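Thread: "does anyone have the structure for this chain?"

Original post by V.I.:
We have the sequence but no experimental structure in hand. Need at least a predicted one for the grant figures.
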Amino acid sequence: MSALWSVGAGLLLLLLWVRHRGLEAVLVHHRWVFVCFFLLPLSILFDIYYQLRAWAVWRLHSAPRQHAQRVRHIQEQVREWKKEGSKRYMCTGRPGWLTVSLRVGKYKKTHKNIMINLMDVLEVDSERQVVRVEPLVSMGQLTAHLNPMGWTIPVVPELDDLTVGGLIMGTGIESSSHIYGLFQHTCVAYELVLADGSLVRCSPTENSDLFYAVPWSCGTLGFLVAAEIKMIPAKKYVKIHYEPVRGLPKICEKFTEESKKKENSFVEGLMYSLDEAVIMTGVLTDEAEQSKINRIGNYYKPWFFKHVEKFLKADRTGVEYIPSRHYYHRHTRSIFWELQDIIPFGNNPVFRYLFGWMVPPKISLLKLTQGEAIRKLYEQHHVVQDMLVPMKSLEKSIQTFHVDLNVYPIWLCPFILPNNPGMVHPKGDETELYVDIGAYGEPKSKQFEARASMRQMEKFVRSVHGFQMLYADCYMTREEFWDMFDGSLYHKLREEMNCKDAFPEVYDKICKAARH
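Reply from O.Q.:
Generated one for you, tokens below.
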């Protein structure tokens, strides 16, 4: 009883303090209070609900039976929109705050919302080595479903809550992408409901133009209702080698060299300053030295980027065996390194042991509760950007990031980019090695100004024939946007499939200059 009184008294004091400071002041300057006491418990409830739902669907085998019925319901909604006179653009009815993108999608309030409740794994075809899934299946859900069966997918984008639909309509990448390419390159077929209400399947050999135009289109060609993704055999561990490297030219040389080696299952770099980095290479294996196993995904373990930094500070190489699923989601608990700005003491051993099992808060809940003051603060003093540039431009790109942003750590992830049709492909006629440079945090550059600095970055990326991931804030004009991306196939299909009255152009949907 005394413990309950203590908890009650503590909550009362907390509420009195919040009332004294003002809710907005607490949310802006002491956000960790709200996150720790409210969002973390709420995130746990979210996870429990979706895990129980996935378990129930799996036990009852209801997903495949109900999929066709759910798709028909989507088709009915589209046909109803046509009967009403096609007066407004259509979009998915999923609330904007549920997406992992930090962008606020105001178009949801003005467009016709089509409800799409498709969040199940439909079929695991071991013979074809393909898994068929609905678009709202998350990466955490998919790996939890496949790994016990001995399978995984070739590219497992990092955060648990990223969905298949978002990774196809946008893009996705992981440290295995130097072998397999982007997430879209591991997909073998898509199923979409089009603007006329018809259901179409597309693949490299069936409706191929649509197949290559869907990635990066952000839902402006049709509604994705299913996808088929390649599978590969899963192994128990990733044998990971950590190597500190100093000096920018040496960092770029070493990273490029390792990225070209197909014997590396995984390649990743973390830069802690302009001249300091740790290059990591990994190999899938079923055998491990017991003394070197590191279950980095356990809630009480240090955040991965902090763990990696120890090798840099000690100036030593190292080898560890990380369980595969822990490796695939190694940056999830700290949301890369974003959580340190929200919960500054989050990596403290005491916090990890007592409350680490509740981390991370759902990104969707962070968005839902951030308020206008925090949103503006983040927009002006915080960056979350991924720029995809040719590997040959890596050194120049990092220097540009340092001058314009000066944000560390920086994430380096290599990938091959095949010369397929669509919005994103190399300038030449052959597959080319690219690298994703990820900057997440508060810029330390004295001349940083959100709009001007990002426009400068976008101009540089266009100059080296690179691409900007479209989940982030984009400041380009329409002409600049279509200079960066190849819109020839995209515009052709929008004309042929009568999309112009049904869906906004991708630029109007995602770029700040076009949004109201």
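V.I.: this helps a lot. The chain has two domains: 66-233, 237-481.
O.Q.: and DSSP finds 20 helices and 17 strands in the chain.
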